[in-house]
Amino acid sequence: MTTKNLIEDLRWRGLIHQTTDEAELSKLLQSEPQTIYIGFDPTASSLHVGHLMQVMMLRRFQQAGHRPIALVGGATGMIGDPSGKSEERNLLSPEQLQSNVDGVGKQMKQFLVFDGSSGAKLLNNFDWMQGYSYLEFLRDVGKNFPVGAMMGKESVRSRLESEAGLSYTEFSYMLLQAYDFVYLCREHNCRIQAGGSDQWGNITAGIDLGRRMLGKQLFGLTAPLLTTSDGRKMGKTEKGAIWLDPDRTSPYEFYQYWINVDDADVMRCIAYLTEIHRDEYDSLAEQTASDPGRRGAQKRLAQWMTELVHGAEGIASAQRATSILFGGEIEKATDAQLGQIFADVPSVETDRSVLSGEGWWIVEALQKSSLVKSSSEARRSIKEGSVYLNNRRVTDMDVRLTEADLASETVLVLRRGKKKYALIRFTTNR
RNA sequence: GGGGGUUUGUCCGAGUGGUUAAAGGAGACGGACUGUAAAUCCGUUCGCUAUGCGUACACAGGUUCGAAUCCUGUAGCCCCCA
């Protein structure tokens, strides 16, 4: 994709929320390859769906021939960005921060190309901040920040008006981020910073500082936040964030998250997060409108995202699991198949001997599997018809499980409700 | 420091000394319908060795055949006076 198309594409996708001096920015991008940076807060050791917009933004620029810098905020993460936060952040320990920086950095490699002429860079602002003394920083940087202007920033104002207030530490946050921009401009000739719309204040602070300290014009570009049609942040379930790390959120869960995206949100997700082209987008939009039941857009979105994040193997196993889990009875499977399909489903082991003789009471099995909290709940569930053995509904409370109920050599599949599965493996020791 | 009020299940909120495991609502969890959706409808929502039993209405004790309901003390919250 050429630069000219890049801007057009971003606009079409609705990814441009605000920019500074758009005409000039556009000219700059077309004159020669530029360097663009986005900062990431290392609040956890993995990125989550909420970060994907920004990661994709860098990727889009890279594909148009520009050099992306993913800045992991080892230093700024120690302070905490007050933007969009209603309360003071708890500070992370340096060790925790370091392991988060490592984790996030590793994930970046999956989305950006790190070699070649427009190879991405992964930088940590702790590297240039750690040796910067407080006195020097105040003289070089602080001097250029009129408190009046700082007070005017939305992130500061909203916090000052709220109960929670704002500590001096968080108040100072924008100086650090502003300095990052200046540093990157000076050392890496980076003149563009992008981010979510909540970063506008921080970005413009950096631009001001760049003008004062370097006499250079810097540029900012923000993307809208990824929210659902009813205004909540995307990428979260009741259980928490959808992580990119397969150990935190399995490929199957990840895939399912996108499959379940609301009709009202799905096209926006495709525009914001994927690289699906316009013609396909249009036909998916058309299909969602005329035949929403097919959920063609959701399936395509889920497939694209899962493949990007978890690769060909991840998408294959997610789809395989989906077809079994939402299919009919499970019979004559092998341990290997079930193990793969239910890789992320909680499983427990118990001794095979319980299956012999009388058999194992289903109520006990349910408790053992943690699908229910008490035997009362187990009985209730059976009465309500929400318990399934190998995907076949159990209606009789006195059912006893025997060898004949195994779905494969040693595994039996329990389910409660529509989507909650548990595996029980029977082992023979000695 | 003195006086008054309040404290119920996940949350909100009724509750007459006696079918009160506690009305009603929310939430949650199921089921039907559907598109693995939304809306709607229905059911469930303390535990157990389960047509019975045990715990439970801030906590401890008391009155009574019987208490979430009455009395006393302790604690939390709220209001008024100093």
List strands and helices in order, with pairings.
Elements: H1 3-13, E1 18-19, H2 22-31, E2 35-40, H3 49-63, E3 67-72, H4 76-79, H5 94-108, E4 121-124, H6 126-129, H7 134-140, H8 147-152, H9 154-161, H10 168-171, H11 173-188, E5 192-196, H12 200-214, E6 219-223, E7 236-237, E8 240-241, H13 251-259, H14 263-273, H15 278-290, H16 296-325, H17 335-341, E9 347-351, E10 360-361, H18 362-369, H19 375-384, E11 387-389, E12 392-393, E13 400-401, E14 411-416, E15 420-427
Parallel strand pairs: 2-3, 2-5, 3-4, 5-6, 9-15
Antiparallel strand pairs: 1-6, 7-8, 10-13, 11-12, 11-14, 14-15
This protein binds one RNA strand of 82 nucleotides through helix 16 and helix 19.
EC number: 6.1.1.1
Family: Belongs to the class-I aminoacyl-tRNA synthetase family. TyrS type 1 subfamily.
Keywords: Aminoacyl-tRNA synthetase, ATP-binding, Cytoplasm, Ligase, Nucleotide-binding, Protein biosynthesis, RNA-binding
